[in-house]
Design goal:
Its EC number is 2.7.7.6. This protein has 317 residues and is α+β, with helices and mostly antiparallel strands. Helices cover 32% and strands 18% of the residues. The protein has twelve helices and twelve strands. The strands form three sheets. A six-stranded mixed β-sheet has the order 2-8-7-10-1-9. Strands 3-6-4-5 form a four-stranded antiparallel β-sheet. It has a two-stranded antiparallel sheet with strand order 11-12. The longest helix is centred in the N-terminal third of the chain and has 19 residues.
């Protein structure tokens, strides 16, 4: 721009002024967008294309989506998901490595101070990672200061301890398209390196287990934990907002299992019946048949409410 001004003032030939004018137009164009159709790409001396305004703003790794809409946050984890039929729909299986690295505040009162001291005393999982005194100072718990922190522990202190079973966490799969793409689950710490979930609750997340990854967030305040526990657990939002249909139901092998269980000739002895029922928290047996065996239908009936009265139209009416 300055060179063009100097040449015009100096009375340079028109052909030189035209060339400089074209060059100025080129640099202004590539300054705004270095991918303009029909315009050669402006490059560094190293021949790498210049990343100009449009390229810095747009796209998945641009300023808007990468730096503003999406940010790294504390108290979160991400890994591959897999299925686990032994978990309830309200649980999520967490690898030990994640449980050891995530922390949740434990607010010390005169009623739970002994439990708090146990976390500080523990040298292995589950242990206290940091302790925040009533003065607001955060201290990392180490072998050298463990006894000093124990002596100073008092109601009003906050212990940042590792995640343990039954802590409440938020589980999310992207893209988050509707409200049940993020729900609250209770922690179940498990061996392995994947996060586990019951297959029946995969549908609202639109999740499958061919390499999908999901995000975990650990609420830090009492209020957020209570909100997650009572408003966001699958058991509290079983009916979908769109049409009132259940968001969780039996699929795949569960349907085949229910069919096989309720066939007329499916029978179990007492030991088999007790093992099956105890696995789902039922500790009563149905009446046995004349031969002392238990039918699959009678076992299935124990899962149904005592006052169930249900009418429906079959597929063939």
């Amino acid at each position: 721009n300055q060179r063009l001004e100097q040449d015009i003032d100096a009375g340079a030939p028109q052909i030189i002024i035209d060339d400089l004018w074209e060059l100025l137009q080129y640099h202004v164009t590539t300054y705004f967008n270095n991918e303009t159709p029909g315009v050669p790409v402006s490059r560094h001396r190293s021949t790498r294309p210049l990343k100009t305004l449009a390229q810095r703003l747009k796209g998945k790794e641009g300023r808007l989506r990468y730096n503003l809409s999406g940010k790294r946050v504390n108290f979160s984890a991400r890994t591959v998901i897999s299925s686990d039929a032994s978990l309830t729909i309200n649980q999520v299986g967490i690898p030990m490595r994640i449980a050891e690295n995530m922390t949740v505040p434990f607010y010390v009162t005169k009623w739970n101070i002994e439990k708090g001291k146990e976390y500080v005393k523990n040298t292995s999982y589950p242990t206290a990672v940091n302790v925040i005194g009533k003065d607001g100072l955060r201290k990392r718990v180490t072998e050298t200061n463990r006894e000093e922190i124990l002596a100073a522990l008092e109601p009003g202190s906050v212990i940042e301890r590792q995640l343990v079973d039954d802590d409440i966490v938020l589980f999310n799969r992207q893209p988050t398209l509707h409200r049940v793409s993020i729900m609250a689950h209770r922690v179940k710490v498990l061996p392995g390196k994947t996060m586990r979930m019951n297959v029946s609750i995969a549908m609202p997340y639109n999740a499958d287990f061919d390499g999908d990854e999901m995000n975990l967030h650990v609420p830090q305040s009492i209020e957020s934990q209570a909100e997650a526990r009572y408003l966001m657990q699958p058991k509290n939002i079983v009916l979908g907002a769109k049409d009132g249909r259940p968001i969780a139901f039996i699929i795949e092998d569960e349907i085949a299992g229910a069919y096989l269980l309720t066939k007329d000739d499916t029978m179990f002895d007492k030991n088999e019946a007790m093992v099956m029922l105890s696995n789902i928290g039922v500790y009563e047996l149905p009446e046995p048949g004349r031969n002392g065996m238990y039918s699959g239908k009678s076992i299935f009936s124990l899962l149904l409410p005592k006052d169930l009265n249900f009418e429906f139209n079959s597929k063939n009416n």
